[in-house]
């Protein structure tokens, strides 16, 4: 391909605009329009691709709805009640608050679907709890909070999996199920690191919750604990589509917070709507730019060309997945996860299909890689988020994050090598892949 070809100039323009500070979604749209102009194609194609992509993908509505559900949870007392429940379960062990941080990430994973939302919401509360009275070093608490937030979009629901389903046509319901075991495996890997650190660094032991109080703590948290049941039960029973289930999740969070817990004012509700709209708009702009750019990638036959090249290497399915892991982990150091899902992954899917790799297994591997990119130096987005929240130096945060990252990469290796870890649960619910 010539360096002066329309596609090369399109990529150069996109990269330059992004480096200059233009949001990546806007940069993709601008670069794509430049390509259409240089290639002599109808300029209306850009608008056509955006409209067709948006109007034919009802599932995209699930993204802002899950974001809204997370915001509504954070403004109500649902978060406090769930953290009290987690503390009653695992807070009594050495390093108890560190275990609480991990367990809450598993529970909250069934509610927001966003790692950033988890870190900014419950993660911020956990940071404050762990550093109160100097119980834990601020950098360690921030590192653990960033690592546990990664679990959120792996255990259902998952906004990245919704976006992967958009580009791959894989079943969202089975993707959600496929993320359960890998998500728990990641949590186990984090617990191993905490177990070793707790004894080596002599982390404090929290005052245990008396067993007689456990039923009351559980009862107070029960409505919030039922949210994942309502959400996932609606999807897997066939009573609701993922989009409808996302709407139910948002409505349930609002109902519980206002009617039952009575902890949300109108001003809080209004702020949550605004915050959700801003986040959804930024994701929507990324999707919009990717729809046009993916049309250009298809016109240029890039997925097919890459598939031919990779097949010439005679890679086995496992060899291809290892290559994908390396590529995505490296890209995750410098690119935002949604961009990778919308721009890079569609190029890899034809090769994966040609090698007979299951699209649910491939999707979970891709999402885990992208989530690990959020805590991978130098540009992991969660690292920047936690630096602001915890007010700790980036160097100290990265140092304390690396053991958790290494443990989760080991879990990723297991998920990649043994597809059954991902596909067991979907197959139990009727998946034939």
Describe this structure in words.
It is globular, with a radius of gyration of 22 Å. The protein has one domain. The model has no long low-confidence stretch (mean pLDDT 79). The chain has helices spanning 6-19, 24-39, 44-55, 62-75, 78-90, 96-109, 115-120, 122-131, 138-149, 159-168, 172-178, 180-200, 214-236, 242-260, 266-299, 302-312, 317-332, 337-354, 359-373, 381-390, 394-417, 420-428. The chain is 76% helix and 0% strand. It contains 22 helices and no strands. The chain is mainly alpha-helical and 433 residues long.
Record the SSE blueprint.
Blueprint: H1 6-19, H2 24-39, H3 44-55, H4 62-75, H5 78-90, H6 96-109, H7 115-120, H8 122-131, H9 138-149, H10 159-168, H11 172-178, H12 180-200, H13 214-236, H14 242-260, H15 266-299, H16 302-312, H17 317-332, H18 337-354, H19 359-373, H20 381-390, H21 394-417, H22 420-428
Helix pairs in contact: 1-2, 2-15, 3-15, 4-14, 4-15, 5-6, 5-13, 6-8, 6-9, 6-12, 8-9, 9-20, 9-21, 10-18, 10-19, 11-22, 12-21, 13-14, 15-18, 16-18, 17-18, 17-19, 18-19, 19-21
């Amino acid at each position: 391909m010539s360096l002066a070809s329309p596609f090369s100039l399109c990529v150069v323009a996109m990269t330059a605009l992004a480096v200059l500070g233009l949001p990546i979604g806007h940069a993709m749209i601008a670069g794509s329009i430049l390509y259409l102009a240089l290639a002599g194609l109808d300029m209306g194609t850009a608008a056509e691709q955006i409209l067709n992509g948006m109007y034919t993908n009802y599932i995209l509505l699930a993204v802002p709805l899950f974001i809204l559900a997370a915001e509504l949870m954070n403004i109500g007392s649902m978060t406090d009640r769930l953290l009290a429940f987690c503390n009653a379960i695992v807070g009594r062990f050495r390093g108890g608050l560190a275990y609480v941080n991990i367990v809450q990430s598993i529970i909250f994973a069934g509610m927001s679907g966003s790692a950033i939302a988890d870190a900014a919401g419950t993660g911020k509360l956990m940071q404050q709890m762990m550093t109160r009275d100097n119980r834990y070093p601020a950098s360690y608490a921030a590192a653990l909070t960033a690592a546990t937030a990664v679990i959120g979009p792996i255990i259902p629901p998952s906004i990245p999996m919704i976006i992967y389903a958009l580009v791959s046509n894989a079943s969202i319901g089975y993707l959600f199920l496929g993320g359960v075991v890998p998500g728990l495996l990641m949590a186990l890997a984090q617990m191993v690191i905490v177990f070793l650190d707790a004894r080596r660094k002599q982390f404090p032991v929290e005052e245990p919750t008396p067993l007689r109080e456990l039923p009351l703590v559980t009862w107070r948290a029960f409505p919030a604990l039922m949210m994942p049941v309502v959400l996932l039960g609606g999807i897997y029973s066939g009573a609701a589509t993922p989009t409808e289930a996302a709407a139910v999740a948002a409505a349930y969070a609002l109902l519980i917070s206002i009617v039952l817990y009575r902890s949300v004012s109108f001003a809080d509700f209004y702020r949550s709507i605004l915050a959700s709209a801003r986040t959804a708009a930024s994701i929507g702009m990324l999707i919009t730019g990717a729809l046009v750019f993916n049309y250009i990638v298809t016109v240029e036959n890039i997925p097919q060309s890459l598939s031919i090249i990779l097949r010439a290497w005679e890679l086995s399915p496992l060899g291809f997945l290892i290559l994908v892991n390396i590529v995505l982990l490296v890209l995750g150091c410098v690119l935002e996860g949604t961009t990778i899902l919308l721009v890079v992954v569609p190029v890899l899917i034809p090769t994966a299909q040609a090698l007979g790799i299951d699209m649910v297994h491939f999707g979970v591997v891709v999402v885990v890689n992208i989530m690990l990119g959020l805590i991978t130096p130098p540009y992991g987005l969660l690292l920047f988020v936690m630096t602001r929240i915890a007010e700790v130096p980036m160097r100290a945060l990265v140092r304390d994050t690396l053991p958790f990252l290494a443990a989760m990469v080991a879990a990723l290796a297991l998920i990649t090598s043994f597809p059954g870890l991902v596909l067991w649960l979907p197959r139990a619910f009727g998946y034939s892949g």
